Structures are given as C-alpha cells and as structure tokens.
Amino acid sequence: MTAHDHDHQHGHGHHIDDDHWLAMLDHVELENEVFGAFVTDTAHRLIEIRGPAAPPVRRVLDIGPGPGVGTCAWARLFPEATVVALDASQAMLDRTTARAAAHGLDGRVEVRLAELPAGLDGLVDIDVIWASMVLHHIGNEVVTLAALSDVLAPGGLIAIAEFGDPQRVLPDDLDIGRPGLAERLDAAGTAWVAEMRKGLPGATTSDTYPSMLEAAGLELVDSPRVGLRVDESTSDMTRQVVFGHLQRLRSQFVSGLDADDLATIDILLDPADPRGVMHRNDVFATSSRQIFIARKPS
Ligand SMILES: C[S@@+](CC[C@H](N)C(=O)[O-])C[C@H]1O[C@@H](n2cnc3c(N)ncnc32)[C@H](O)[C@@H]1O
User: Fold this and answer.
1) How far is the CA of 65 from the centre of ligand 1 (A)?
2) CA 67 to chain centre
3) Which of 86, 133, 137 should be mutated for ligand 1, with most atoms under 8 A from CB?
4) Nearest alpha-carbon partner for 31 in 294, 251, 286, 201
5) Whose CA is nearest to atom 10 of ligand 1?
6) Tally of structural domains, the chain
7) Given this model, what pLDDT does residue 10 score?
8) pTM of the full predicted structure?
9) Secondary structure letter of residue 177 according to DSSP
10) What is the CATH number of the domain that holds 203?
11) Domain that holds residue 7
12) Residue 4: what pLDDT?
C-alpha cells in the first residue's frame, strides 16, 4: 500500500480495499501462520496476568485481523469466547470468515466492517483486545486507544503487537550487490511508514506506546519482546516466506531504493536464477514483535 493509496482511501472516508494489499494477502497469511507463536505466547501471558481465579474469557475483540490467522488462534485458545474481528477491509473480513469456517470456528467468530477509531458502538464488556500491527495504520492512536478502553470490561486487557527487531531473511555478507542491503531496506521501511502515516485521516504524531496507553487511561502491565524465527533454509515454506517478503518490499519501497538495490532484489526474486531465494540454501526469516499489555482500571 502506498502513501498515496492511503490518502485516497482514508481521505474519502472509504473502507480500505487496496489492490496492492490484497495482492499480498496470501503472503501475510503464510507469514502469520509461520510466526504464529507470538500470538500463543501473548495469550499465555494474558492468562497468567488474569490469574487462576479469573472467570473464563468470553469476549475477545481482534482489531485489524488481516486474513484472520490471529482471530482463529484466539478462538482456539479461549474456547468459551466469541471473537469479534473488526477491520476496515471487507476482503480481509471475508478471508477471516472463510478461515474460521475452515477451522470449525465459525460459530464463535463474528466480523464487523468498521474504520477505527469509529465503529465500536454496541461492543461492551470485552475481556481481551488484540491489536496486532494495526495501530500504526490509524491516524490518531491515542483517540483509538481511548475508544478501545471504553469497550473493555473493568480489569479487561489490551495486547498490542508492533514492530520489534527488523526482519532479516539473508546473511549480511550476501554474494550479490552492494553490502548493507538489509540496513537500506530498514531505512526505506521506516521512511515508508512515516510517509504513509502523513496521509491518514486525523494523523497526529504518535508517542511511545507506554505513553499513549497512559494518555488513554490504561495501565501498562508488561511489555515483552517476542522473537519470530523460521530457519529451515531448505524448506519450501521458508523460501516462500522470504520470497513473499522481498516481493512486498520490492513493490512498497520502489521509490526508496536505488537501481543497484532494485537489481539485487530482482536477482533474488528471479525463480530461474540459481542465486535467487527459491534456490539458495542460506535463507531464513527472523524478526520480533514488541508486545504491550495494558489493563483498564477496575
Ligand atoms: C498489517 S495488517 C495486520 C494483520 C494482522 N493483524 C497481523 O498481525 O499481521 C493491518 C490490518 O489493519 C486493517 N486496518 C488498517 N486501518 C484500519 C482502521 N482504521 N480500522 C480498522 N482496520 C484497519 C487493515 O485492513 C489490515 O487488515
């Protein structure tokens, strides 16, 4: 998704259904599946924080579920809960609904088309809110957190997952192109997010998540950093994750990279080139998510 697309869609008050994003949906789904442990780890931490005497979790709200991998994980992890998946994209919600049905969870997964911070009306007494890689796509994050706080039950928890360590998929001493490609991709990514945010409706400069949670009246309880790793270099799945990742960066950061780096990425993405990621034996995928867990005061 380019900053222009964002501006166009949000600026006209439309829900999001961006072609570029949709083209990446298969990749996002695969990535969410292979990195799924960070959802499970967070859920187990929430169970610890709630304590052994807490009643079962009955209402979960998953904002910005994308293809719904997390949504289904929450439904599995909390078998007495209904999970509401709220997204501004109908295509994402359709994918979430299909995934829930395929996993036999459709009776407990509901979808809601809404563009935050609006669209929470009617939701009350939510036990757990999951906000994974979505808040940075919303113009005013503090207003959104305050609106989310309003729908939490007293003592309810919100878990936010945001960027941790940058993703790495190839060794530093890559045998193609100029050294330092990974750092230049990181810089292009940071610039892309900053530019994208400028186009969001009601865009304000964001503070740190602990500060924004406090401003929204929520109490920070824990902030673990959870590692993500796939390192079976010879597996087709790892190659596919790395291929999709580079393909996404290639199209998103095209204006932030020079011709040499674009040529290097093109070699890596060439299925016929033995130096390409579909043939290399040194590919892997590591990253991390920074989790923030906060409680609504009782
Ligand atoms: C990067 S995806 C995150 C998908 C998944 N949760 C994950 O962890 O990978 C961001 C999701 O947030 C949704 N989104 C972006 N802005 C939104 C808004 N203002 N209100 C609701 N959903 C939004 C997008 O449609 C997309 O599904």
Assistant:
1) 6
2) 10
3) 137
4) 286
5) 134
6) 1
7) 39
8) 0.92
9) S
10) 3.40.50.150
11) 3-295
12) 35
